What we know:
Helix content is 52%, strand content 8%. It is of the alpha+beta class. The protein starts with a helix and ends with a strand.
Amino acid sequence: MAAMESLARGQAVYLIPLVLLAAVAYTLCLTTYRLFFSPLAKLPGPWLAKISSIPEANALKQARRAAWVTELFQQYPGAVAVRTGPSSVSFNDPEAVKAIYGHGNDGFGKSSWYDAFSTTGESLFSTRSKKRHATKRRMVAHAFSAQSLTSFEPYVDATLNKLIQRLDGFAARGEPVDIYFWFELFTMDLMGELALGDNFGVLEAGQPARYSKLVELSQRFANMSGLLPFGKRNVQMLSWVPIPYVQSLYKSRLEYLDYARVALERRFKDENREKAVPSGKSRTDIMQRFVESVDPETGAKMGFDELRAETSSLMVAGASTGSVTMNWMTYYLCKNPSVKKSVIKQLEDMFPDNTYGDQSVSYTRLQHLSLLEYTELEVLRLHPPIGYAMPRDTPPQGAVIAGVFIPGGVAVGVPAASIGRNASVYADPDRFTPERWSGGSGDLAKMKNCFLGFGYGSRQCIGRGVATQFVMKTMAQVLLRYDVELEDPGLVLGTKEFTIQKPDQTYRVVLKRRVSE
């Protein structure tokens, strides 16, 4: 027995070096293949990105992933595609948009990156199954219909009135205001009303809820998870990494999910959730529509965990993107006073009985206000809330995209921040020119085809109507009610990426109540 044990120990001593040697050999072979023999080897990109996700992960940690990809295209002029990872490619070409995201492209499925965003269940955003996505979209489409938008308007008006009261205080005191901060509080309270049946009380408190910070940190953890090669195990694998920064993000994710659970449970237990709204009708919000939705094939309804996942997704999609869009609209209108003047003139002509913003404006009539809509489109082109590529996997047989053959199983995408400033699509792409969307100059069809501010194709944001509703209403009333100027007219505002592309610095505006001359 002792002899056998001794033999076994001896074999183990020799086996360990062999295993290590095999691992080193495998790594060297894989690295050599990725650098020189892979079908992707000829694509431009950092050499380290060809063998690992470290450059992209580092850009993500530095809050500038979208900027990093855009800089790669600048480093390789004329390139329609750059390699951003061992098995990921970003395109910056009009043909690539339709090829990857267009309707009928069944071979391009969502990549494993989305698995990291499935929390307690699959949401409309995170589900990778095209069939499941189509089913879920049919189930909840009525929640975003024109009729539903009308039923949501009283909640928008009530929350907007709270914001205006706060802004009136700053205007009366002549005190500059951090307008983006208050836009964030407004959208957080509004999405609480629409997604949870009650607001967070942040407008009244004058400070953000813990939830908003948890959303940001949880999204950062999911993005980091999505860079790993383990598919659905990404979240679990990353949660084991003993790095304090990673662990803090993971704890925030857990707290975020628990927060959503408690909030949703409170909604269902609240005996007053059917309370009357200002219109006098029974309360109907987005979540109620989700609760009532039925799978057309099975007749099944969403369970609590699935509703919880949809709630979390709604809060990110609505609150974060809406506030940052209004931020950029305010900034660019202040930097372009002639455009601002024209927008206000259109507003005054359309609402002659409300030329000083004493009441909220009707969304139905706002839809005919072209210049304000063009302003929203232009800032979403220049600063899309999500600037990096939404990845899709190429079909098994591979695909030719914008003249470039990409083998099967490669994550491909078009970064909204890059294509939005593509000079072959948008003339003078870095210039704020809302009028370009009128079709007076440039190829309007081409510009619309490359506009990714709300996504593209069948996966386009289903809540676009809701977001546009409250953004347009809020900006219209603010512009009618106040003269808005930057405290620092020379301010140059950049972006910092926290999943959502936010302004890179705090800034303030001066508000003055507009009065009759």
